[in-house]
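Changelog note: in this version the structure field was regenerated for every chain. One regenerated record is shown below for reference.
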Amino acid sequence: MLSLVLLLTVSDTVPLRVLTHAPVFDGIIGTGEYGPPILQMQTQRGSVSVWMGRSGDWVYVAAALPDSTAAWRDEFAFLLDPVGDRSPAPGHDDSQWVIRRVLDSSEVLRGVHGRWQLPGDDPAWRLGPARGGEGWDVQATSTSTGWQVELRVEAAWLAGTYGGVPAAAFRAYDDAVRIWTGWPVSQACPDGAQLERLPACWSAVLGEDAAGQ
């Protein structure tokens, strides 16, 4: 079953804040580290809060997901088009970090000829005990009421150094109710599953000055 998102923050851009201090990268999110969320996605469990900010050589993406029925398949995903061409299908420049509540089961996908591909095109590939890769790291924590994710990627990927304005999107999945939630939504991409397949629906990532923050 797929769900539509109730946008609590209406925007056609993703604001990239400059953080005054680098967050403590431990999978625990505090508003003192990130400030208020840049957006919220409404689910059956409540609001998924999402933060994004730059500090030094890193861009931090964080999410707090309310969910009292823990399952390894619970997901938060960050989708990134660093070139900003927003192609009609996943291209070679597009990436998707699929962070699962059981971190060992997480996946990092790249766009290849219009589809998402795992490293080596291996359908059994999972992150395993690693907590990072080339140009990125991840941490997460889980409690009886929900879970939190912190992902950091090299700031160069969102600096517009590839000739265009980068674009991004976010997705969450609750395995207990089998519902996808995504941001942004539009007529072309009203749910998380479609959002994954259509980079053309993703939103531009703008720095504080350009985004009017």
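Spot check on this record: The two ends are 36 Å apart (CA to CA). The first strand starts at residue 13 and ends at 18.
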